[in-house]
Design a protein that fits this description.
By secondary structure, the protein is α/β, with parallel strands linked by helices. It is built from 16 helices and 14 strands. It has an 8-stranded mixed β-sheet, with helices on both faces. The longest helix is centred in the C-terminal third of the chain and has 30 residues. It is globular and about 65 Å long.
């Protein structure tokens, strides 16, 4: 009787598994604890918000259109951020109340990760897709097949910054993720050397091609009333020390070559706000919506990315798509995306004199600068989010199929032995 009951339930399990496995979309939990995909575009240079917010939004949107059932879990930062926001029948964002409902510096959120994790039911999902080490910790705790994107790495950060207690925890968690995650998605080819991940794949992020493909540099200059008789230089990003802004303003302050330097990003109440007082000749424009941002990039001759360290640097790819020539620090993503002398110039991180020399070299050869911009545009417009997410979708399907194959093998082993 016991053996019959076991066989009966085993058959029911198989039927349920076949129904769940082949007749419903893959249930995907995207964990982005500190990167809310619903953040307003104008907020993306404030309080540590930026590339991850965009990445999660675009990946979630495109995966849901491909047939995946996607739920993003992110932390509530205000009393208005509650419940679940339904974006489509297959895409939703769920706010998790863990810790105070206010913005926290992301390292402070570590103490609330257990509370965050406890509010996610792993039984509702087939795969977890985690972003950044905090979310990676959550993914490990959920016990599901896990895809992880680092977005930035502690081993890079603490080359430039003092190692803190939370930094030590971060390094330990990142090592655990690299060891145990089903697959690490590297955004750069050199990340494997830094992570030594057990299982990894390289999938480069994309850009919102539709925001760039229609742009025309001459029209953008006229629309924004840029002076075409000077070299127009642009910085886009957070006003954080690791972005190396002070080296950029020092460099251009020393240059006698006619130029206009514009900086886009939220500077109020940051450690870099003093730059407005010390270098008032530059234009500090504050944050801009992404639609306007593309226009400013298009109207600019040079995009300057002076980061001390940079995991990927989506802004580099966007600047290239807008037709800018590039001056970048030879670190991380900018170093990999820019070929020195071909589509831009590279400088050592934290070197104001090198930035000035690179600027004057490009500004003194407008033909070269224009050729670089046109070449960048042709190259970068081929990097769409659709292409990126198709590769991610294939990965998720393969991981889900591997999970199902393991269960099938277990059943094949158990059921014949019941006779």
């Amino acid at each position: 009787m016991t053996r019959w009951l076991f066989a009966h339930f085993a058959v029911i399990f198989v039927l349920v598994f076949l129904h769940v496995g082949y007749h419903r979309p893959i249930q995907l939990a995207i964990i982005s604890a500190h990167g809310n995909p619903l953040s307003h575009p104008a907020e993306l240079s404030k309080c540590g918000k930026g590339g991850q917010n965009v990445y999660v939004r675009e990946v979630g949107t495109h995966l849901s259109k491909m047939g995946f059932n996607v739920t993003v879990f992110t932390r509530s930062e205000s009393e208005g951020d509650t419940g679940t926001v339904i974006l489509s029948p297959t895409f939703r964002v769920t706010y998790v109340v863990a810790g105070p409902q206010q913005h926290l510096f992301r390292d402070l959120f570590y103490q609330y990760l257990e509370e965050f994790t406890s509010q996610i039911d792993p039984g509702e999902f087939d795969v977890v897709f985690s972003n950044y080490w905090l979310s990676g910790y959550v993914g490990l705790k959920l016990g599901l097949p896990q895809i992880h994107v680092h977005h930035s790495l502690g081993v890079q950060k603490f080359e430039w910054e003092p190692l803190t207690e939370i930094g030590k925890i971060r390094l330990a968690v990142e090592r655990e993720i690299n060891l145990k995650a089903t697959c690490i998605v590297h955004q750069l080819k050199n990340e494997q050397e830094l992570t030594n991940a057990t299982r990894a794949i390289y999938i480069k992020p994309g850009i919102e091609v539709d925001k760039f493909e229609h742009l025309n540099k001459e029209k953008s200059k006229k629309k924004l009333k840029f002076d075409e008789n000077v070299t127009n230089v642009l910085y886009v990003g957070r006003f954080a020390p690791q972005k190396g802004i002070k080296f950029a303003v020092e460099a251009l302050h020393k240059s006698a070559v006619p130029h206009t330097f514009r900086l886009i990003g939220a500077y109020e109440n940051t450690s870099s706000e003093y730059l407005l007082r010390e270098f008032p000749q530059f234009e500090y424009l504050g944050p801009k919506p992404r639609s306007e941002l593309a226009e400013y990039m298009s109207a600019s001759d040079i995009l300057l990315v002076p980061s001390l360290y940079e995991p990927f640097g989506l802004v580099v790819l966007e600047g290239m798509a807008a037709g800018c020539s590039m001056i970048v620090s030879a670190v991380g993503g900018p170093d990999e995306l820019v070929e020195d002398g071909v589509n831009g110039l590279k400088v050592p991180p934290g070197d104001a004199d090198a930035i000035r020399e690179a600027f004057e070299k490009l500004a003194g050869n407008r033909t070269l600068m224009s050729e670089m911009g046109r070449r960048n545009r042709r190259t970068a417009l081929g990097n769409s989010w659709k292409k990126t997410v198709e590769n991610l979708g294939d990965l998720i399907v393969r991981i889900t199929q591997q999970k199902n194959t393991v269960i099938h093998r277990l059943l094949d082993h158990v059921i014949p032995n019941l006779n």
